[in-house]
Design a protein that fits this description.
The chain has helices at residues 14-22, 47-59, 72-83, 88-91, 102-117, 132-139, 159-166, 191-204, 226-234, 265-280, 289-298, 301-331, 355-365, 385-396; strands spanning 29-30, 95-100, 122-127, 143-148, 150-151, 156-157, 174-178, 207-212, 238-243, 256-261, 348-350, 367-368, 374-376. By secondary structure, the chain is an alpha/beta fold. It folds into 2 domains: 2-45 and 314-396, Aspartate Aminotransferase, domain 1 (Alpha-Beta Complex), CATH 3.90.1150; 50-302, Type I PLP-dependent aspartate aminotransferase-like (Major domain) (Aspartate Aminotransferase, domain 2), CATH 3.40.640.10. Strands 2-10-9-8-7-3-4 form a 7-stranded mixed sheet, sandwiched between helices. Strand 8, helix 9 and strand 9 form a beta-alpha-beta unit. Helix 8 runs parallel beside helix 9 (226-234). The mean pLDDT is 96. The protein binds 4'-deoxy-4'-aminopyridoxal-5'-phosphate. Residues 34, 102-104, 130, 178, 183, 211, 213, 243, 245, 256 line the site of 4'-deoxy-4'-aminopyridoxal-5'-phosphate (PMP).
Amino acid sequence: IFTQVELAPADPILGLTDAFKADTRTEKVNLGVGIYKDESGSTPILKSVKLAEQKLLATENSKSYLGIEGVQAYNRVVQELLFGADHSVVKNKRALTAQAPGGTGSLRVAAEFLVRNTESKTIWVSNPTWANHQNIFKSASLGIEQYRYYNAQTHDKDFDAMLADLSQAKAGDLVLLHGCCHNPTGIDLNESEWQAIADLCLKQALVPLFDFAYQGFGVGVNEDAQGLRIVADTVPELLIANSFSKNFGLYNERIGAVTLVADSETTVAKAFSQVKSTIRGNYSNPPAHGALIVSTILADEGLSSLWESELKEMRERIAKMRTLFVETLKAEGVTQDFSFISRQNGMFSFSGLTKEQVAELKELHAVYIVGSGRISVAGMTRTNMPVICKAIAKVLS
Ligand code: PMP
């Protein structure tokens, strides 16, 4: 039976990491996967996380199962981070949250819950979007449509096209929105654009599904939630899949959450019972460690402010790398305008490099970026910058 199984294509992002690991060249650079690197090129454990783990080691007294929805205290602090503690959604108990394995697990739970329990069978995703979105939603049997988002000529968003495409969506269709730090373009909506999207969702009865994987990597923890809060102020029903992989550096703990918002406390309680049923049929209940770290940090004023300062340091280092990247390309003699890169948000930049140029970077210069031309700026350092920019200058010449 198994001999009939076709070989799966390599994953566009993680497959690149495998190829990178197998590369024996010494000056190789991996700017494929979205992992934060510090100036020394390593991905450290945050000090706030280490301190929380020390606290947990001293106090944790059982490894008994969690409930289906995970650590209760964690689910509360997730809502406060997403909406702000005083938001009416939180105060009126219109949201319920379940801890889930990373942003990916949260998206998958949200999608399966929708397919099994609602009329929503189609999801609109931006073109381009994170490479795994289609895979996750197809696995949950959602149909996929795309809305235009990016203008390759201006290296900016194409908001009119986004609105025009979404105006074709039917009542009950889902709209996937990147809360901030759009992956792969690094281009986000502004306040009035968010309001226009919220109004459109309300008018056409579309259901927003937020993918919120980079809170705090754009401008700040609250600033980055602006879009989500505008939509939650306008639209009665939505879902959020958030991740703490990046902003707490908890990549391998697989910690995120799925939050369901409905128009009343009663509706959300009833619908959420089906989110729990979806989880029970997948992995029964989540692992505890990541959630305990996050809730320990956020419940402690000292640890919270240490975390915020560590997050700020990561955000500011990436912003510096953006400017340095643009300057170093210029210094290497590149005449093409790359200044748009310093205006983008978050870990990624959509460079505009072609598939052929990306292949040449890998084959001839051992610089690995995703085929779409997406570069992880978070993997750049002062040390590897000259190597990267020299290679790009060569493929552009
Ligand atoms: N959504 C987006 C847009 C992402 O970039 C990522 C991570 N690359 C995720 C979701 C998934 O995050 P996690 O690793 O927590 O599953």
